[in-house]
Amino acid sequence: MKISVVFLDRDGVLNEDRDEYIRTVRDVKVYPYVPEAIQQLTQHTLSVIIISNQSGINRNYFSRETAEKIFDQVIQTAESAGGKITDYYYCPHTPEEGCSCRKPRTGMIQQAIADYHISLDEALMVGDSRSDYETARNAGIPFILVRTGKGKKTEEELKITDPDLIVVDTLKDAVSWIVRKT
């Protein structure tokens, strides 16, 4: 299995998730193992791209500017061990807006493919939610579920319908799995 790009969800994978949204930079709590995990992916010449639903923007919980500052904080922390995040994409829309970018639709992945000439045959996604899982399935790429964030609940839901689901505890464990497969 050749992997050249790893798509990551943000909240619940890179940083702690909150039911009431990550609304400010002060709300950001990146998991302590994330910088090392991102560094390992970079060391193995894998591109890392974040794709994240951020409907709090169109719900007027926070502005685009604040959302981008939050992304900057997550990325700065994630890259602090020398790793590199290639880019990030986010969908500001609510589910009711019916856009093509909101996960589980594949608009953000399709945009990354266009921007970076990515081969889907070499892509993989790591997430913690059913919408992450469905996004990967809709894009036709492998998926790894982490138990952080919403992951434990998602695992309970998906194990019944997908007994072959790859489940690991954290992003660090997902990276170990990915590195072994490349």
Q: How would you describe the overall organization of this protein?
A:
The chain is α/β, with parallel strands linked by helices. It has a single domain, classed as HAD superfamily/HAD-like (Rossmann fold), CATH 3.40.50.1000. It is 37% helix and 15% strand. It is built from six helices and six strands, in the order βαβαβαβαβαβα. The protein has helices at residues 34-43, 64-78, 107-116, 130-139, 151-161, 171-181, and strands at 5-8, 47-53, 87-91, 123-127, 143-146, 166-168. It has a six-stranded parallel sheet with strand order 3-2-1-4-5-6, sandwiched between helices. Helix 1 runs parallel beside helix 6. The mean pLDDT is 97.
The CATH homology group name: HAD superfamily/HAD-like
Helix share, percent = 25-40%
Which CATH class is shown? Alpha Beta
N/C terminus separation: 6 Å
Major sheet characteristics? 6 strands, parallel
Could you say what the CATH architecture is?
3-Layer(aba) Sandwich
Please give a handful of descriptors for the protein shown.
alpha/beta; six-stranded parallel beta sheet
